[in-house]
Amino acid sequence: MRIHCPYCCTRGVEEFTYRGDATVRRPDLDAPEAAWVDYVYLRDNPAGPHAEYWYHAAGCHSWLVVRRDTRTHEIFSVQTASEVSEA
Amino acid sequence: MPDILSPCAPIAAEPCRVGALSLAPAPLEEMVSISSFSNSLPALREAVLHALGASLPPAPGTATRQQGLSILWIGPNQWLACAPQGSGLMEKLQVACGAHAALTDQTDGRVTLTLCGPYAHAIAAKLVPIDLHPRCFGLSSVALTQAGHIPVILMQRDRQPAYDFIVFRSLARSLHHDILAAMRGGIPESEQN
What we know:
Chain A is of the alpha+beta class and 87 residues long. Chain A is built from two helices and six strands. In chain A, β5 (63-69) and β6 form a beta hairpin. By secondary structure, chain B is α+β, with helices and mostly antiparallel strands. The chains are: A alpha+beta (87), B alpha+beta (193).
């Protein structure tokens, strides 16, 4: 798999580190315990389009949100995590 | 009273030659990393231009170079300024840009190894996973990548071609060994035309 870093152009996956599911959101502080258990421990394992954090560890150290198909490794979009959080 | 360590070169200064290829540590330079504070970029660009007479490179993956001074892009809103010993780089930057960026002296932390000679790109390509063809990586191009498993900042210094591998000092010997092994392995026949 090759990921198109917005800063460094296309690089091999060996330069990146997978940093988890980019769809989970921290619950409110007073949310029920079940919501926190879900947030901390439970992850879906979707077969198909998914958003993930990838860290360009051996490159520019950017955190990226990569939307890709987990079955085919087809990548639909790559954005910096800061861009996504500001949107 | 602790002993004060005196700086010594991590590798011998004499170039290692294999055929027409040469590998040598570049003369030690003053290096300062510049990390822009948020919303300070326009002011920082102006301050650097005023202090050094050279501008921050406009795009990722490039460097500006003039009269011994180089400013390399080393990440989003981060640059590495390099100047010959004795040029007082840190002082100049502190006065001009201290309010706009975090400045960190990297002089003792990094070593530059220069690989040059015909087909140097073919030797470098054995180690780095990026495309070094001139249409992708030309003069003053910069890439943050790895050589083998060693993180490097790679810059094309010269069209000869010559490449600068800027590496953490503690990894300089390993990188030197790897590049030398790549040189001794010869130029791949597929690259010779």
